Request: fold
Amino acid sequence: MMQIKLFTIPILDSVVFEQELNAFLSSHKIIEVEKHLVTMPANAYWCVCVSYLLPTLGEQTPKSKVDYRKELDEVTFAKFAIMRKARKEIADKEAVSVFVIFTNAQLAQMAQLPELSIGALTSIKGIGKMKAEKYGVQFLECYKQLSDEASRVSNAKDSRVE
Reply:
């Protein structure tokens, strides 16, 4: 469904208004942009008319990228990073995209769980019984192996420091 949005951008001090227009243009499916310079004795400004389409039911609006290093505490982020490596190893073996295995959001939720198990995986949105059965066991094994290696490396560093 086509929509119209109007922007009025003053010639002087236009930075904030330009940023608003640019943000809108980059986040919508634009059909047409019309602009007219309007001059008045005391001021001049651009009048911009933007015709755009609303997203259809199947389309999603772009989501902003999440910085999990900022979202998760240090310990949880360390678990998350190991889980990403485990997911990558499985994806390479299966010759699929990493997001077919688990999304970053799902890994972040897993990293926050007190204990990781097949049952715990199915409690996370988007991970059903089939996905948990298909990838869960190998993911948990790979995660355990990588986390054991990480703790050995960490312990070795700690013993050298003392």
Remarks:
- Residues 122 and 129 are 6 Å apart (CA to CA).
- The mean pLDDT is 85.
- The longest helix spans residues 129-161.
